[in-house]
Design goal:
Blueprint (H helix, E strand, L loop, with lengths): L3 E4 L2 E4 H13 L11 H32 L7 H10 L4 E2 H8 L3 H13 L3 E5 L7 E5 L1 H21 L3 H28 L5
Antiparallel strand pairs: 1-2, 3-5, 4-5
Length: about 190
């Protein structure tokens, strides 16, 4: 069970409190980042993976709430995120899997459901009739527009000033670096370790 602690106008769960306290340890007394101790940096790194996992589940919860608000009950939050990954593009199934990091059987199941519910149009590729091309249907485009409105509202709430925007950009760059590092570990360091 996750315990929530009230801090100012927001709640922090125990994982976020842990990360916040480690980040505070890494800052100098005047609030600037300084040379953090190796122990606190490693502990902060360890906590980041837990925060990412927790945020993914929270994102699904937020999407689920929005689906209920707009009266959509025939699609899951994961399937909504697949629609957002397709976006305005026309993709092959392989492209979608690489873009969204989906597993083959998971992607196949979800895509079948999205086609059956009318969110995605699936057609054979003109180049290779065995390959399918995916694009959003009108219903899928409408839902992505509605989710886009949610994202706009949330961004407005999150980014109150220029410093918030700078923090968000820094966070994005760091998370992308972490994603690339983990991807490289899987691709290059994980060979033959089973």
């Amino acid at each position: 069970m996750i315990r929530l602690t009230r801090i100012g106008d927001r709640s922090l769960d125990s994982t976020e409190r842990s990360v916040e306290s480690r980040a505070a340890e890494a800052r100098q007394p005047d609030g600037r980042s300084g040379d953090a101790s190796p122990a606190s940096t490693v502990a902060l790194y360890r906590d980041i993976a837990r925060v990412i996992d927790h945020m993914q589940r929270r994102l699904h919860d937020v999407v689920r709430v929005e689906l209920g608000r707009i009266g959509v009950d025939d699609i899951s939050p994961m399937q909504v995120l697949m629609l957002l990954n397709i976006g305005e593009d026309e993709l092959s199934v392989r492209d979608l899997m690489e873009r969204g990091y989906y597993l083959g059987s998971n992607a196949s199941y979800n895509l079948k459901h999205l086609v059956e519910q009318g969110y995605v149009d699936r057609a054979a590729s003109q180049r290779d009739r065995r390959a399918a091309r995916l694009r959003l249907s009108e219903k899928g485009e409408w839902l992505c527009t509605e989710i886009g409105k949610l994202e706009n509202r949330q961004a407005t709430q999150l980014l109150r000033n220029q410093a918030d925007g700078t923090d968000l950009e820094t966070t994005y760059r760091m998370l992308r670096r972490l994603e690339r590092m983990w991807g490289d570990i899987v691709r290059y360091d994980g060979r033959g370790q089973d």
